[in-house]
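Human: If only I could read backbone structure tokens as easily as an amino acid sequence. Take your time, and here it is.
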Amino acid sequence: MKDGAPARILVLSSRPDILRAVTDAAAGIDPPPEVRGLFGRPLRVRPTDLILVDIAEPRATMPYLHRRFGAASVLVALIDGAWVDRLGSALAEDWTDYLFHPLNAAELGFVWRKHTSPAEAPDLNLDVDESGHIRVVFPSHVRYQRAVVERVVVACRHLADLDRETAFRLRVTLGEAVANAILYGSGDRPGAVVRVSAKADAEGLRVTVSDEGSGFDPDAVPDPVSAEGIGRPRGRGLFLLRQLADGVSFNKTGNRVTLSFRGAPDPLVRIEPLLRRFADVTGLRFRLDRLFEDGSRVLFDSWGDDGESGRPPEVRETWPLGDAGRLRLVHEPASRGDAAATLLAGWIGAVAEGEHSRERLLARRLRRERVLAELEIARDLQLKLLPPPEDFRDLGRIAARCDPALSLGGDFYYLVRLAGGCLGVMLGDVSSHGPSAALIMARTLSAVVLATGVEAEPAAVLDAMHGQLRAALDATEMYMTLFYGVIDPGRGELRYANAGHPYAYLLGPDGVRRLTALDPPVGVAAVRSYRQTRLPFAGDTLLAFTDGLAELSDPLETPDSRVRKRIDRGDLDPEVLVAALFADSDDEMRLDDRTAVAASL
């Protein structure tokens, strides 16, 4: 299990029957986990939680789920029987796992144990013989499923040169087959094992999963999209296999399933008609092979049934294809067609260069995808550095949100609980975007934690932070606007310091007051000591946001006038204010980070 608080099952669905079904099914897990509904409820999600998402919900999209729960969260797609025919497209998204509704209690328990079991990879002995036959035998236990699937899929990608789409289909179907073998076949009896084997040939890839159970009759399982089967908690796994694999077959006992996947055609096969035409016109007999480290594949052979008769064939030339191997041209002796062979070699050389370029572009794209995935993880970690406003709601009404324009950004907010029931509220905006701004933002958060732990007054906090950040800002030629206010309900006042931040407001029954900057931004000019001021604060709302939320589609409207509109409507609730700011600036083409924080004590 991941470190931290005990794992829970959280359910994102507006349907009460789904929450009840999950609660009932979870009661059979030993020990039963806590089950909570997420729909319409503010709840802080822990890294250990298993989040079940009803994919029929309008917000069941990866961008929304990653923003709300983080890219590293365990997201399980809960697929209703009415949606099972769209299962493939649903699984193509970045779900951690999936379950079907109506729920099968055993399958919920399996998914629960799989994602809360120890994270260390189990010891697996995966054997690949000289003929490329993959075999692995492992104990029938849930903790082996993920490791077995990943190891076998990686080996098969190398063995059968699988494209990305086929590898995805293999991963999903093999995971389902292995889960069924553990859950319904061998079980978790001591000494019970599951066997997986894979073999590639000219027809494609065949993967077999066998267990030690008594088997079943696949023909007796009703179609889950039929009127008879749509409400039953069984049969969806078999439907999944038949939907995603190119072929599915069982032995007579029903305890061994073979999944077949047609081989992806070699991209160079597209030139085969031209090679045939060339051979017919010139009469040259030749063969074009694609060579790999562990074998070769014939792309074209014009010798026909008589083979390479007569004098030994001549290897004209080979061309590198990067990680995709080499091309080799073998033709009859040059004296019987030297001009034709030279022409053919030149043309194939050009084709090889084009294919090599394609492989380089593919490798570059894969590297870019890995970088984007790493940036998404970094973005999630960056947002987790920000304190959740829910932790401070015993002090009053507080709302905050940060949304970087890129994977990483330079905006941030910070909340800190101070002595005497006071609340410190900070908002900052680094003058750039991306990883460099994110590093400055992370250093700033470290500085504010240290400063607020020692200093009580806003000006003293900015003084301490300036000393810690000045060198980093100078080195990167960046600057940062920074607002920090302390709401003191005991004294009924707000004390604040403002280093160049333009969008900070005090909202109350008497209207809007802009909390103007008292000093230049941090990093722009040397500041001997920051200044602060104080204002009455009784039933008011403090609001601050960054310039990404100040960019308006209406050029005649200013940020001040928009805030005043909210006051005129009586919108002083922090959650309403923050949500309205983001709704007003929701533009897919935006280029700036967006952050807002509001508090009323």
User: Anything to note?
Assistant: The CA atoms of residues 418 and 453 lie 9 Å apart. The longest helix spans residues 338-384. The longest strand covers residues 193-201. The chain has a mean pLDDT of 79.
